[in-house]
Amino acid sequence: MTDTAAEAGETEAETGPVPGSVIETRGLTKRYRGGQLAVDGLDLAVPAGSVFGFLGPNGSGKTTTIRMLMGLIAPTSGTAHVLGCRMPAASRTVLPQVGALIEGPALYPFLTGRGNLVRFDSADPAADPRTRRARVENALDRVGLAAAAGKKARTYSLGMKQRLGLAAALLQPRGLLVLDEPTNGLDPQGMREIRSLVRDLAAEGTTVFLSSHLLDEIEQVCTHAAVMARGRLLVQGPVAELAAGARGRLAVTTPDPGDAARILAEHGATGLVTEGDRVSADAPPGGTEPADLNAALVRGGVRVRAFGIERASLEDAFVALTGEGFDVAG
Amino acid sequence: MSQAELTAVPAPRTAPRALWAFGILRSELATTLRRWRTLALLGVLAAVPVLIGIAVRIETGDGSRGGPDGGGGPAFLSQVTNNGLFLVFAALSATLPVFLPMAVGVVAGDSVAGEASGGTLRYLLVAPAGRTRLLLVKYASVLVFCLVATLVVAASALAAGALLFPVGEVTTISGTRIGFGEGLLRAGLIAVAVAVSLTGFAALGLFISTLTDSGVAAMAATVGVLITAQILDTMPQLEGIHPYLFPHYWMSFTDLLRDPVHWDELTRNLGLQALYAAVFGSAAWARFTTKDVSV
Ligand SMILES: Nc1ncnc2c1ncn2[C@@H]1O[C@H](COP(=O)(O)OP(=O)(O)O)[C@@H](O)[C@H]1O
Ligand SMILES: [Mg+2]
């Protein structure tokens, strides 16, 4: 890796991206030949050392973005820098330091699991053939496939294929791992295993760029997140800030829900929902102290059983951002 | 692993690096040649000379060696009973128009498109294999397949010929006689000439392979082009374009059996194949290095 890093450093000096960002895009746009605008003016900044969740429903442009980052397709306009170098021009210096799983694993069905890894490792001109065996065995161990490594890949289950794809991404020590929906199609146990592997890798200092259409996945493993919808970036930042950015819900439990709703509305609460003895509303904007609302309710003769603010989840943030549920885009 | 890598890093990197680049060629050759499909193609090619030999043997089983033969069938067939070495020439004449190029068309057509349809192309590219390097490696391995396929036909024919018929001095097309050793040498040269004849078509197949993401479509289109060119080459109305059709000089290898050798058409064939390789190789490069790999 030594001279590759040096080359990367040189390119960095020439192009001058923002320091600290492992991935950085400016106005990145892709219109497919069919005329489909898949990614629209994307400005992404992935901090070094983060586990960065790239969240969006199916068809929102996640895979398209990743293809551009990896130099597989050319952007229609805009630029992308990965590890400080302009892509796709710097593919040869950047990609040996990047492990990628793009839109599911793809294997040679007629080769064994081990044979597949040997093939992908041979394709990297920066990989020393003298240590190839060791690298391959290491990667197989890491994903728990050592026992099945001699079987033909066509006999693998989807979960095993996914792991072998991950093993290929882990052949070298990487500065960046790009994982496009790595838990797609896995059972809950497989999902847990992959997520724990991602956490381990992050703990070793690898920046992980993880795309997903599953909110809870992002909430569980990511430090940062960006939210995509219909090819556009809605928001990005640390997960804690994103969730905090969405206002929580005010919830009142009372035997007098009608009065409670009226009084809350008089005090400017919006988004009122009454379900049985429970009244909820969007939390009041910054200026209002929730305790004052409670006092107002009591003054108005409402018998309050419970009063509180429910913490917002990333899902609330998403719904607030898009004004819609987390469904497949058209 | 980290141990080994740490010791490997301080070593001079430039010299081994140049060699490391061959790792992908080795991998490509192993992947191509060890595939069940490739072995099946080679098996069929190996069977053709054996079948021809057996058929000739049965036909002339009464011992009436070299009886009057009205012709028909591949060239050299009538001499096979006198000299088993002629089975090499007969088998190459029989397989060159269709079987050999069809096998090459399958391998060349599938070379890039097959990786695309399997999705493995994207992983080779992010490895990163490098688009130019990958294309060169693909073409090199198709060329190796051309040679291997031709040698399989020749070797199988030589073995069958030696087993089924006597071998000995060779009578050239010019009527002179050359020793068996010299005859073997000519057979080797002919095998190389036949393999070279396929290089232009191989480049064409590679180009077609970069046009689509479906391996099957690329194979079918490549074989379709082969058949079309063969048909056009037989139409007298199109004589003007015949010298530019890649199969036009294929049979020139028989000139290696003249004494002295007629180099005229052989060199013309060489030039034509080089032209095809240059034109379609460049086209494949232009296409593949700018192609969106989105499968
Ligand atoms: N190869 C392609 N050609 C044309 N359109 C495509 C192609 N790949 C994806 N698209 C379209 O681009 C949009 C974004 O797709 P994609 O990037 O795969 O989304 P995601 O990965 O978030 O599900 C979708 O509308 C999809 O139909
Ligand atoms: Mg996707």
From TrEMBL, chain A:
Residues 1-22 are annotated as: Disordered. GO terms for molecular function: ATP binding. Keywords: ATP-binding, Nucleotide-binding, Transport. The keyword Cell division does not apply. Gene3D superfamilies: P-loop containing nucleotide triphosphate hydrolases (3.40.50.300). InterPro entries: AAA+_ATPase, ABC_transporter-like_ATP-bd, ABC_transporter-like_CS, P-loop_NTPase. Residues 23-255 form the ABC transporter domain. SMART domains: AAA. Belongs to the ABC transporter superfamily. PANTHER family: ABC TRANSPORTER, ATP-BINDING PROTEIN. This is ABC transporter ATP-binding protein. It comes from Streptomyces mutomycini.
From TrEMBL, chain B:
Keywords: Membrane, Transmembrane, Transmembrane helix. The keyword Transmembrane applies. The keyword Lyase does not apply. It comes from the Bacteria. The chain crosses the membrane at residues 39-58, 85-108, 139-165, 185-208. Signal peptide: none annotated. PANTHER family: INTEGRAL MEMBRANE PROTEIN-RELATED (PTHR37305), MEMBRANE PROTEIN (PTHR37305:SF1). This is ABC transporter permease. It comes from Streptomyces mutomycini.
